[in-house]
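Would you kindly consider the sequence and fold I have copied below?
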Amino acid sequence: MANLAKLDFVALDITGKNYLTGIVDTKIHLEARNLGETIKEENSASAQDWAKAMIFIRRHLNEGLKSEYLMVEDLLALWKALRSRYNHQKMQQYRKRGFIEYNQLISVLLVAEQNNELLIKNHRCRPIGYAPFLEMNAASLEVNATPSGGNNHK
């Protein structure tokens, strides 16, 4: 029963202080569950997928946010409302980093986007829960490569 209450990551705080990590974690976890399409415009997600994604997102909201957005029944509307509510947090964090020129900000954003895409691709190659690749060292390959199985007796 304790596992039912366990969150995959920290719930989005009502102050929005963990907004950036919360949004990225949510996107990655939705992708991991094949529910990434549910938060995109004009998606073809099934009602069942939509419900799973809605449950997942609501579960990772602070109690204050849950009660505030209790009546929002459309997943995409909830996602957009949260993004618009906390989007200024992103800009404040970029300002704190002290970008002087616009191209500096753009290059950082492009790198962040590439890193996010790489995380998604890596996850698609090996989803959560799969066993790690077995490691093999060169010494064991050399021993097994000798015709007598590593015994060089004459």
